[in-house]
Design goal:
Blueprint lengths: L3 E4 L6 E9 L3 H7 L1 E3 L13 E6 L5 E10 L10 E8 L1 H13 L3 E2 L4 H8 L5 H11 L4 H11 L2 H25 L10 H30 L1 E7 L5 H9 L17 E7 L2 E7 L9 H16 L2 E7 H4 L12 H10 L4 E6 L19 E3 L11 E2 L5 E2 L1 H7 L20 H9 L1
Parallel strand pairs: 1-7, 8-10, 8-11, 11-12, 12-13
Antiparallel strand pairs: 1-2, 2-6, 3-4, 4-5, 5-6, 9-10, 14-15
Helix pairs in contact: 3-4, 4-5, 6-7
Length: about 425
């Protein structure tokens, strides 16, 4: 393969910039563009940083740098790799890269270093994908997930599944090719049990895909409820700043507002919505329709209950007196819902938790006076992390390969085998 070079650090000015060269000419190119500072320098010692001057193609000095040569195959790409660590000014870094290109390297294409690592067997495809996920990780949870993939956890699991399926294929071939011979085969019950084990493992892998999406993009957490229930106040409190307008006028929020933040290290996209009610005003009606759409698309819902309007007896009723709350509970289906009894400073619920919550997690707060930026806390010291629990129920924990949470009725054993071995 030809020798390639690229700037390895992010665009823009910085304290340090790195130019990486990979390929059979790496050492030669590095030697021609590096002038050592020490008179005792006798050549590049592998994996050792050497101080000196970076030179352009005509031998003129460019910068005071550190240079290192790393022989393959124990490098990221599996090839000989050289790096020049210089000051991070855009002109300096670009000048050093242009020198490497003039001396015989080719400009690397996008993702080419990772592609060479894959082609040279330094990582499997899942690990190559994990490199990009690791760079773009928006939170500690996403970072931990990407590191697990980079360590080859997914690749090892797929390899193990492939081996199990090969064993099953051998058993099927024996049973079909030698039906009258006394050869050792799995009994039908044992064979079916092994197939189900493989199916459960594949379900876990598919669940992991959803977890990865949530961790990279953030879980969509929708704040829903009636008008003036305190949705915008709760959004501002969770963000720690005034993002949404808050007034006593019903229907202030007409459109949805979406803001990204982290709740205890979990990336979420908080979405404030218009209050649910019947209205003749056309603009508000459009906002209410968007609210219902966002509820259906949510990963988790914070359902605001206006305790000041319902009063203490509202929690004791068999059916929630709040029509908007009833509507959201009906629409939610399997979406995790946290019932938030707001304005507890005006009305403490007579019964807690309310019967109409049907066992859903509940918390009592005063959004205007008792919410921290990251966790819900009522003014009387009651602490609750159900927001985080609801989001974690979407799969924010590290992947457990034996998770069996998806409906598999549409997949038979041949389909499973085809999906894993293809």
């Amino acid at each position: 393969m030809p020798t390639i070079a690229a700037i390895a650090t992010a665009p823009g000015a910085g304290g340090i910039g790195i130019v990486r060269i990979s390929g059979p000419q790496s050492r030669e190119i590095l030697s021609r563009m590096f002038s050592p500072a020490s008179a005792k320098f006798s050549g590049f010692r592998p994996w050792v940083l050497h101080r000196g001057r970076a030179l352009d193609h005509e031998g003129a000095p460019l910068d005071d740098v550190l240079a290192v040569f790393m022989p393959g195959p124990r490098t990221f790409t599996g090839e000989d790799v050289a790096e020049i660590h210089c000051h991070g000014g855009p002109f300096i870094v670009q000048a050093i890269l242009e020198t490497a290109l003039r001396l015989g390297a080719r400009a690397a294409e996008r993702g080419e270093f990772s592609r060479r690592a894959f082609v040279n067997g330094r990582m499997d495809l899942s690990q190559a994908e994990a490199v990009a996920e690791l760079i773009a990780a928006p939170s500690r949870e996403a970072l931990r997930y990407s590191l697990n993939r980079l360590d080859g956890l997914l690749g090892r699991k797929v390899t193990a599944l492939r081996q199990r399926l090969e064993e099953l294929r051998v058993q099927m071939s024996l049973a079909v090719d030698f039906p009258d011979e006394e050869v050792e085969c799995l009994a039908p019950e044992a064979f079916a049990a092994v197939v189900e084990e493989v199916a459960a493992a594949v379900r876990g892998l598919l669940t992991g895909q959803r977890r990865a999406q949530v961790m990279q993009q953030g879980a969509v957490v929708v704040l829903a409820g009636a008008v003036n229930a305190g949705k915008s106040s709760l959004l501002n409190a969770l963000l720690g700043r005034n993002r949404a307008l808050v007034t006593d006028i019903p229907g202030t929020t007409r459109d949805f507002l979406e803001e990204s933040c982290q709740l205890d290290g979990l990336p979420v996209r908080l979405t404030d919505t218009a209050g649910l009610r019947e209205t003749d005003e056309s603009v508000e009606e459009m906002g209410v329709a968007l609210s219902r759409q966002k509820v259906r698309q949510a990963d988790a819902i914070l359902l605001l209950v206006d305790g000041g309007r319902l009063g203490p007896a509202g929690a004791a009723a068999d059916i929630c007196p709040d029509e908007a709350v009833r509507e959201v509970l009906e629409q939610a289906g399997d979406i995790p819902v946290l019932l938030v009894w707001n304005k507890v400073d005006l009305a403490e619920p007579a019964v807690w938790p309310p019967a109409w919550g049907h066992g859903r997690p509940c918390v009592r707060i005063s959004a205007s006076t008792g919410v921290t930026p990251t966790l819900i806390r009522c003014p009387y010291g009651e602490y609750d992390d159900h927001v985080i629990s609801a989001i974690r129920s979407m799969g924010m924990e590290p992947i457990q390969w034996d998770v069996d949470s998806l409906d598999w009725k549409d997949y038979d054993a041949p389909t499973i085998c085809k999906r894993v071995t293809s």
